[in-house]
Amino acid sequence: ASSQLVESLIRAIGSLPSLPKNIAWFKGTPTEPDLSQLHSFLIEKGMASLLPRVDSEVEKTMSFYKLKDLEKDLVVGSYGIEEPRQTLELVDFNSIDLWICPGLAFDGEGKRLGQGGGFYDRALSQRASNAKVWGVCFEAQLLKELPMNPWDVPMDQVFSA
Fold it and tell me: Which residue numbers in the chain have pLDDT < 50?
């Protein structure tokens, strides 16, 4: 299913009117899709491959860093998730063209249920107005309807497999 998701994302990226320069994605938990195959495509096409790093578990903030090599650039970080080394190039939220976001569940209207920390909603509130926001999940995580709070950021599109 993860490979199918990556293939769908690659097709969707290729069909955009202009290719994004900076793409933020995530290195997930065992219950989330593995998007690692996306990295080599992004690098090959000259796009920046960005991953989040938790800055503060207390303040629930994260930053995104530019990756070159998945093997060398990652360390196990907060919550046991692989994160970029802090020595890598930091990227401003407003320069991210495409955000690929995880979630516990999504609905057909693009509503997203996160882990409850608000990390992504805080970061997405600082995105550029023209940035695309996509959610990815397994088919079982698609629900008929989810509630939405005023601070929740809806997805422009949701991909599942």
Answer: none
**What pLDDT, on the 0 to 100 scale, is given for residue 43?**
97
What is the torsional sign of CA 87, 33, 101, 54? negative
Residue (of 137, 128, 87) closest to 107 by Cα position: 137
Cα torsion 77, 83, 88, 92: sign: negative
72 burial (CB, 10 Å; 0-12 / 13-18 / 19+) is: exposed
pLDDT digits (tens, 9 = 90+) for 5-43: 999 999 999 999 999 999 999 998 888 999 999 999 999
Q: What is the Cα–Cα distance from 69 to 90, expressed in whole angstroms? A: 15
- The predicted pLDDT at position 98 comes to 98
Give CA–CA dist 141/113, Å, rounded: 10
Supply 25's token pair: 């994605």
- pLDDT for position 86: 93
DSSP assignment of 47-86: -EEEEEEEEETTTTEEEEEEES-HHHHEEE-GGG-EEE-T
Residues in a beta bridge with 126? none
Nearest alpha carbon to residue 52 among 145, 138, 130, 114: 114
